[in-house]
Amino acid sequence: MRISWQRVKPGMWLEFERRYREFSHSQLQNTDPKARWLLRDLDDRDAGYTVSIWNSDAAMKDYPTAAIRAQIAAQFSGLLIGDPDRPHSFEVRSELP
Q: How confident is the model at residue 19 (pLDDT cuts 50, 70, 90)?
């Protein structure tokens, strides 16, 4: 699992969300990640997290190629405040139904 935190310019969350969906759909031909979520902070409406679930640690580590990073930078240009938080990677140890 990979989790990243983002802050968008004030009032730009809906545009960020639209672009996030567009980018995620453009990546569906890839087998990874197998699931993605966009979480909006309830206390700070201009911030949130992205969560992705991967089939393997290797796939997660291999994903952020220079080409993918360039696509992400172009997709979210002008929306983010500062650099996106460095993604944090996790091993899922327990899953509940």
A: very high
The pTM is what? 0.80
CA distance 87 to 64: 10
Q: Are 39 and 16 in contact (CB under 8 A)?
A: no
In CATH, the number for domain 2-89 is 3.30.70.100
DSSP state of 80: B
Helix axes 66-75, 13-26, angle to 10 degrees: 150
Query: What distance in Å separates the CA atoms of residue 67 and residue 5, rounded to the nearest whole number?
Result: 21
Do 51 and 1 meet the contact criterion of CB atoms below 8 Å apart?
yes
pLDDT in tens, 23-77: 888 776 666 788 889 999 999 999 999 998 888 888 888 887 778 888 888 888 8
